[in-house]
Amino acid sequence: MAATTRLSDVEIGSNKRIPKLEGVRGVLAMGVLVFHVAWQAGATNYADKVGNGIWGHLADGLTVMLPPFFLLSGLFLYRPFARAVMTQDARPGAGTFLFRRGLRILPAYWLLIAVVLLGINLRGIDSVWDVIRPVFALHFYLPDGQPNIGLGHSWTVPTELTFYLLLPVLAWLAAVFAGRGGDVAKRARAALWPAVLLFAVGIAWVTYTNLPSFKGPFEFWFWPFYYVSAFACGMALAVFSSKSELTGVTPAIYRAAAKHPNLFWLAALVIYVVNIPKPFGEPGMGTIGSLTQELVGHILILVFAVLFLLPLLVPEARSRLMDVTLANKPMRYLGRISYGIYLWHIPFQNFYVGNGNMFGKTPVMDAELRGTSGFWELFAFVAVGSVLAATLSYFLLERPLVNYFTRRAKRKLQSRIPVAPADDTPVPSERIVK
C-alpha cells in the first residue's frame, strides 16, 4: 500500500502535497472563475435583474466556492501553532511565519497591481496615494477615490494578510488560556478559544453590515471580518486533527467522513442547492429579510465548506469519486497555480471587453458592461488567459522566489550546526582496506 501523507506532514513551507487537496484548489479556483464570468455575461441574478433560467441560478450558487479557500488557510496555518499549545513546545516564530506567508502571496499580487494600475486604471490615478493603497493592500480599508477597476476581487489579499498578522497573536492568546500543565484535552480546549472568538466576530460583522440602519460603504462587506468565520472553521479543524493525532482518539465526525466520504459530498451538494434560492430577501438590500437571508446564506456556505473538505482531510477516507475528480494531473496542476488563476481572471474579463486605458478608454465599472458578451466566448478567453498568466507567474516569479529563500534559509540553518572535531586517533593497520 502506498504511503499516505497525513496533515501532520504538511507544515508551513513543506513541499509535501496531498493530491486531493491540491486538486480541490483547482476546482475551487475554476468555480470562482465561472461564477464571475457568468455574472459578467449577465447569466446570473443581479439586484432586480433575473439571470438566464436554471443555468443562471446554478452559476449564482457558486458563491460557495470561495470560503473553502479561507478554511484551508485557517486549518494549515493554525495547525502548527495549535499543536505547539497542546504539546507545550515552542510556537513557530512569528517573523519567519509572516515572511514566508508574505513571500507566498505578495510578489504575484504586486505584479497584478502593476499590470492593472498601468493597463486599466492609469487615467484614474490622481496621486501616489492611489498606488500606495493597493500596493500595501489598504485599498479596501481606505476605499475613497481608489481606482479599482479590475481589482474588485483583490479584497481577498488584505483578508489573508490580516489573518496572517492576527494568527501569532491568537496563538499567544491560546497559550495564555492553556497556562502551564494540564492534559492534551484541556490544552486543546484552550487552543480552540481563538477560533470561537473569530467565529463570533465574523457573525457579528455580517449582522452589523446587513442591518437596515447600516450606512457604511459597500467595501465593508469585503473587510476581513466578513469571512473571518471561515478561517475560524479551519482553525477548529486544526485543533481537532492535532488532538486526534496526539491522543489517538478520533472525533466521531472524522470517523464518519472516513467511513462514508461520498455522503459528505452529497450533503455538500444539497447545501449548494439549498443556498441558491433566497426566500428571505436579497442580501444587501437593507431590510430585515435581507439580514436574515445573509445570515442564513453565510452559515450555509460555511457548512458547505466543512462538508466538502472534511473527507479530503481524513487520511483514512477512501473515495474513487474524489480520486478521479481531484487527484488527476490536470486538476492538480490547476490547483498548484490556483492563486494566479484567481488573481488574473477578473483583469482578463476587462481585457476581453476592452475596458481600460490600454484600449484608449476611461475604465468603467464592471456592472456597466454586464451582459455585453456571451458566456462561452468570455469563459474561453478568461480561462485560457488566466491559466497562461498564472503559469508564467508561478514558474517565473512565485516558485523561484520561494525556492531561493528556502535554500537560503536551509544554508543559514546548516551553518549554525556545529561540526564535530576531526578524530586524529591513528587507525590500526589491520583496519586499513588496501
Summarize the structure.
It comes from Sphaerisporangium krabiense. With 434 residues, the protein is mostly helical.
Structure explained in plain terms:
- The chain is mostly helical and 434 residues long.
- It has one domain.
- Helix content is 64%, strand content 0%.
- Helix 1 runs parallel beside helix 14 (338-352), helix 3 runs antiparallel to helix 7 (184-209) and helix 6 crosses helix 8.
- It holds the Pfam family Acyl_transf_3.
- This is Peptidoglycan/LPS O-acetylase OafA/YrhL.
- One of its GO terms (biological process) is polysaccharide biosynthetic process.
- GO terms for molecular function: acyltransferase activity, transferring groups other than amino-acyl groups.
Strand content: under 5%
Distance between the termini: 44 Å
Low-pLDDT residue spans: 1-5, 10-15, 427-434
Q: Which class do the helix and strand fractions yield?
A: mainly alpha
Instruction: Please report the number of helical segments.
Output: 15
Rounded Rg: 24 Å
| Run of helices and strands | HHHHHHHHHHHHHHH
Q: What would the principal axes of the Cα set say about the shape?
A: globular
Number of strands: 0
Helix content: 55-70%
- Average predicted local confidence, pLDDT: 88
Number of domains: 1
Profile the largest sheet.
none
How would you summarize the topology of this molecule?
Layout: H1 19-40, H2 53-60, H3 67-87, H4 94-119, H5 129-135, H6 156-178, H7 184-209, H8 224-247, H9 252-259, H10 261-275, H11 288-313, H12 320-326, H13 329-336, H14 338-352, H15 375-416
Helix pairs in contact: 1-12, 1-13, 1-14, 1-15, 3-6, 3-7, 3-8, 3-11, 4-6, 4-14, 4-15, 6-7, 6-8, 7-8, 9-10, 10-11, 14-15
